[in-house]
Each structure stands twice: as C-alpha cells, then as structure tokens.
Amino acid sequence: MSVAAELIDTRKAPAPTRDLAQGLRDIRDHGLTIIPDVLAGDTLKRARDALYAAAATDRARGREQKFSLDYAHDETNQRVWNVLSRDPVFEDMVVHPIALHYVREILGWPALLGNISANITGPGGGEMVLHADQIFVPEPWSSEPQGMNVAWLLDDFTEANGATRFAPGSHKLNRAPRPDEANVATIPLEAPAGSIVVFESRVWHKTGHNRTASETRAGAFAWYTKPIYRAQENWFLSLKPEVRQFASEEMLVLLGYKGDLLGLVNGASPV
C-alpha cells in the first residue's frame, strides 16, 4: 500500500456538526468539516438567485473565464468570479461569524481574503483535476496550512450532481497529488443546501462529475490565506467602490486595505 493510500481513508468522512471545537478536530483529522443549516429561508434563496443571475449575465455577455484546474474541453462547469462585487449577500458570507471563527483558529489574524468565486456544475460534466489549494507554496509543505476555503452550498450537494470530492487525510501528506495519483480514492461531500464546508489548503479535492440529466449544483467558495500571500483576486482593481467604502474593520483587513506590518503605505496602514 502506498503512503497516500495509508493516510487516505474514505470511510472516515466527518459527520456534520455545529460544535466548533469538534469542527476543528475534524479539520485536524480529516482536513475538512461540515456545518449544517448556516443559510436558510430567504437568505439562502437570495444568495442562490444572485449567483444564478450573475452566471446568466456572464454567459449572455461572453464574460466567462475558465479556471486553470478545470478540464479545457468541458463547457458544463461555469465559474463566476469576484462575486463580492455582484451582490451584498456575498459580503455577509465573507465575514460570517462561523467563517471567521475558523479563519482565526486555523490561520490566525490578520488574514487575507484571497478570493470569493463560485462554481456551477451542469449536467453531464464538471469534473476537475485533483489538487490541493496551496500549490503555490514550495514543497515540502509544513504541518501548518497556509490557507483555507469556506464553501457555501447553494444547492444540495449529492454524488449524482457533482458534489465536491475529497480525499480525507490527504492533508497529512504535506504535498500536492502526483500525476499517478490522479485517480486516488475520493468521497463525495454530500450535504443539503445552506450547509458550509470548511477545508484546509492541503487536503486533496476536486469537483465531482454531474451525472444527472437536468440538475445544476452551485457553490460559492471563499478562499482565505495567511497575510504573506498575494490574493488571487486583485481587489484594488476589481472591487466595486461601495464594498470598500462601507466595509467593516474585519472586511478591510481581509481585503488588504487595513494592514499591520504588511501592506503599509509610507509605514502606516492605508486606512
């Protein structure tokens, strides 16, 4: 049995939990945790409607941009970038108390919001390359993650409709998957709409294959890093001015406008 196979145990997916301490243990042991019922009712509907409206606008105006880890031939997987500028509901996701609790516990504070984008997987495709999110960090990686994702499930995630697939325990390898590990065993992250999934940056994962005839599966992914890393999204160029103008102190830190030791202007924080 390979080292990867010894650490990856697809029988050990963590059960959903609202207990924050248990969630941190799940991330330590498995690389991820599932928190149910974070969005509900009108808030969930508004977020879902806002995302699908933004996706439809991008497609109608020819503004879609692929992601480098998507398969180039697959047109069923739509990325929606910079959703922070699309609707205020995504601002609330970025600074949600549960999300920021995990950011502070896993990465410390200050941290940066590297990106918040969305992925809509359509029928008949959507699968992406198996990867870990901190591939920009030289190997061997340390035992401390350099980033984390908070995935907001705006539709039910099921194995059939392309739920994100994980290799639990793979974060303990402290490296990205090798080409000959592209087909390593993974499990679908199945959870109802309104749940969030927090996963650290070393765990291996990919978008699943949507095998349904008509279902789409949408999720928004907020990516946070330690403050030494450049953000994936260039907020200073792409952000709608009112988001920065009315941002909370926490949001200003996450966007890089309020600095401490790093990101200074003439030795002081810009704001």
Outline the secondary-structure elements.
Elements: H1 3-7, H2 20-30, E1 32-35, H3 41-60, E2 77-80, H4 88-94, H5 97-106, E3 112-121, E4 147-153, E5 165-167, E6 187-188, E7 196-200, E8 204-206, E9 217-225, H6 235-238, H7 241-245, H8 249-255
Antiparallel strand pairs: 1-7, 2-3, 3-9, 4-7, 4-9, 5-6, 5-8
Could you name the key traits of this structure?
alpha+beta; Jelly Rolls; 271 residues; 8 helices; 9 strands; 6-stranded antiparallel sheet
Overall, the morphology is: globular
User: Radius of gyration from the CA trace?
Assistant: 18 Å
Q: What is the CATH class name? A: Mainly Beta
The overall number of domains is 1
Query: What is the overall pLDDT average?
Result: 92
Low-confidence stretches: none
Structural class comes to alpha+beta
Tell me the number of helical segments per DSSP (H or I, 4 or more residues long): 8
| Multimeric state | single chain
The CATH topology annotation reads as: Jelly Rolls
Overall strand count: 9
How does CATH name the architecture?
Answer: Sandwich
- The SSE order reads HHEHEHHEEEEEEEHHH
Q: Give the end-to-end Cα distance, rounded to a whole number of Å.
A: 54 Å
Task: Please give a structural write-up.
The protein has helices spanning 3-7, 20-30, 41-60, 88-94, 97-106, 235-238, 241-245, 249-255, and strands at residues 32-35, 77-80, 112-121, 147-153, 165-167, 187-188, 196-200, 204-206, 217-225. With 271 residues, the protein is of the alpha+beta class. The chain has a single domain, classed as Jelly Rolls (Sandwich). The protein has a six-stranded antiparallel beta sheet with strand order 1-7-4-9-3-2. It is globular, with a radius of gyration of 18 Å. The model has no long low-confidence stretch (mean pLDDT 92).
